[in-house]
């Protein structure tokens, strides 16, 4: 059967004749296995929602995984057997990475199959090419599981907030990093000890530096920014700073001043372009998002009609991620019933309405700052520091000076009002050049996240 534009629509029959939809899963790790089990466990409830039976008929896994009962399912060691199986309607790509996964997805699209993927790296880096190929072929590439695990933030940005102009969004979008920061803050645990636990729980990326250096969050932020602002995916232009250099000292001072440090992904529509940045950030402790702990994710979206809205839930792990994968399968199955050419656009905006708004270099980003200086305990040092700031038009929000260390040096903590990053870079360089400032100035960005 063909739809309006000659694209394929699976035949739908009434009653007992309704044709099951055939799903092939490529990759049987935490997410693939989770989706397999969820489709089986919730089969009755899911088919009440879709009106069609969903059958996992083919699984591609390079290794045997005795944890899953695959009886009645074709199992191939060559994952391309799944993609090339003519009976498969939807390919679920959950192997991760950007090499073989890219081939799997592109080959599935070429074969006219719909794709469901949890692969944020693949979409952030190659999404423009993938969506163009999918549109050309009239198939759908669904990716709810790529961002914030079980939190349906893709659907929110693409559909729920479609009436709004989105001004900015800020998210805790890496569960592993948030889990580490929370355990370190609440229990004083060691960084590597918590990371190991996150790996055992299936939260961490294959390469955990992706989690702690902010790369995974930048992949996800790239996707969110495209959906929020209708711009192409531009991962390479995202600014990324990890959490590995955060100290307990700064976490403590931030608390004293009424802030929490979170690893945030921030995308903001500024007058001259889009800010796209991932870095540790002080946020007021009273904000709901400041109290998002453990592996939980949250995304705060500021939109012009609805105002601020907050989306919260588990951001990693088998169940939450499988929940999003299966929701995408349900979405595709529903679309199959009426023709995928009428589906919501991949990047929320019509492909010919995607704008080339520039991504701003970090120098041009405007934010507030937390600065920690170690100063010699001498009269006039603070006056010199404040002179450097005032010469650059940087306004101070708060100052905290701690008692002198035995060595005669004092920690000084400053909070500033918003200023362009290049002004702050120049101020920090001038402070570090002062004879009475010892070592490097610690700089952590600060966002009030008010509407
Ligand atoms: N490593 C990711 C995280 C998994 O910790 O959030 C979910 O994308």
Describe what this molecule looks like in 3D.
The protein folds into three domains: 4-150 and 318-353, NAD(P)-binding Rossmann-like Domain (Rossmann fold); 156-312, Dihydrodipicolinate Reductase, domain 2; 366-446, 2-Layer Sandwich (Alpha-Beta Plaits), CATH 3.30.70.260. Helices cover 34% and strands 25% of the residues. It has 14 helices and 17 strands. The protein binds L-homoserine. The site of L-homoserine (HSE) has 11 residues, from helix 7. L-homoserine binds at residues 149, 174-176, 203-205, 211, 216, 315-316.
Distance between the termini: 49 Å
What's the total number of strands?
17
Shape: elongated
Q: In percent terms, what proportion of residues is strand?
A: 15-25%
Radius of gyration: 24 Å
Oligomer: single chain
Q: Give the total of domains.
A: 3
CATH topology annotation of the largest domain: Rossmann fold
Biggest sheet: strands, sense, closure?
A: 11 strands, mixed
What are the SSEs and their pairings?
Layout: E1 21-26, H1 30-41, H2 43-50, E2 54-60, E3 74-76, H3 80-83, E4 90-93, H4 100-110, E5 114-117, H5 120-137, E6 141-142, H6 153-160, E7 166-172, H7 175-187, H8 191-200, H9 209-212, H10 215-229, E8 239-240, H11 248-256, E9 259-270, E10 273-284, E11 296-303, E12 307-314, H12 318-336, E13 366-376, H13 381-391, E14 396-401, E15 409-416, E16 419-420, H14 421-432, E17 437-446
Parallel strand pairs: 1-2, 1-4, 2-3, 4-5, 5-6, 8-10, 10-17
Antiparallel strand pairs: 7-9, 7-11, 9-10, 11-12, 13-15, 13-16, 13-17, 14-15
The structure holds L-homoserine (HSE).
